[in-house]
Write a structure and sequence with these properties.
This protein has 184 residues and is of the alpha/beta class. Helices cover 29% and strands 30% of the residues.
């Protein structure tokens, strides 16, 4: 069972972070040449679409976009659920030679990102893969670091960060929840 502890970003703060990340991506890559964005399903997909749209508006060009589901690439597939929910990978793009901006909502242990990189490499060999996340909460188990971060939120292992998006949840905010030791 979890209990909401605090709202750490409201809708306006999420929007500002997405705009800042988009500008940083364009600046760091000196434009959009050979740039593509890939979101990790579910909320990374939602946020990735937003970043692609913002960059397209800034640069007056169309940014290639795709989405991946990393379920079968996870190293903990047996432990997450007896019947895991599998979404569709929508990546009809050639990643070879491209700069791929991988987007996720929360960076925690790094295992989701590792799984996403494994899947992307099955589609070709990008020039580079950069990582953009809305929240970096620490506690890495793998040597993975985000290139673009909306907000760093130090957490304990007894806390959960929940990103709520208008598209997925009907509301826009980022909350921190505390795990209770009670059994339901």
């Amino acid at each position: 069972m979890t209990k909401q502890k605090a709202v750490i970003m409201d809708a306006k703060q999420v929007e500002r972070a997405m705009i800042r990340i988009a500008h940083e991506i364009v600046e760091q890559n000196m434009g959009t040449r050979d740039l593509m964005i890939i979101g990790i399903k579910r909320r990374g997909d939602t946020l990735g679409k937003r970043i692609a749209r913002i960059i397209s508006d800034i640069e007056k060009t169309n940014i290639p976009y795709g989405a991946i589901d990393i379920t079968f690439y996870r190293d903990d597939l047996q432990t997450i659920a007896h019947q895991p929910v599998v979404n569709q990978t929508d990546l009809h793009l050639d990643v070879t030679g491209k700069t791929v901006i991988l987007v996720d909502d929360v960076l925690y242990t790094g295992r989701t990102v590792r799984a996403a990189i494994d899947e992307i490499l099955d589609f070709g060999r990008p020039r580079s893969i950069e990582l953009a996340v809305l929240i970096d909460r620490g506690h890495r188990e793998l040597p993975i670091k985000a290139n673009y971060v909306g907000k760093n939120v130090p957490t304990s292992h007894k806390e959960i960060i929940a990103v709520r998006t208008q598209e997925e949840d009907g509301e826009e905010k980022v909350i921190i929840k505390e795990l209770n030791d009670e059994v339901e």
